[in-house]
Amino acid sequence: MNMMDETLAAAIRSQWIESGYLSTISSSPARSHFRSFNAEVLDRREQHAQVRVTGERVLTIPPMGDKRAEDIVTEFDITLPMAIIPRTRLATHGVRILDIVNN
User: Fold this and answer.
1) What does pTM read for this prediction?
2) What letters, b where the CB count within 10 A reaches 16 and e where it falls short, cover 1-23?
3) Which helix (H) or strand (E) holds 34?
């Protein structure tokens, strides 16, 4: 969230607070990770860029009772419009994500 535009981060934070999302995931025995991840720069003009990110997220549900462990695979495809932020040191650039768009 530290790479998000302040307005976008505030909106997501508000959604998490209203839904109780953080307390739900902290008490869940399930865990997730990215099995594959691919990023492609679609467009870059001056201080703005759009990056398409695709891949697979795996949700692992541990065994419970007589149920076996289960992996649920979800494909994702999003575009991240972002601003490129010049830094004053080391001639590097940072990015600020302006939005998250499902494709």
Assistant:
1) 0.71
2) eeebeeebeeeeeeeeeeeeeee
3) strand 31-45
d(CA 3, CA 81): 12
Locate 61 and state its tokens. Answer: 């549900």
**In degrees to the nearest 10, what's the CA dihedral of 89, 92, 11, 59?**
-130
3-state helix, strand, coil in the chain (%, to 5): 20, 55, 25
Q: What are 77's strand-pairing partners?
A: 54
pLDDT at 82: 93
Instruction: Count CA atoms closer than 13 A to 41's CA, side-chain side.
Output: 9
pLDDT band, very low/low/confident/very high, at 91 (cuts 50, 70, 90): low
- Residue 19 to residue 36: CA distance in whole angstroms: 28
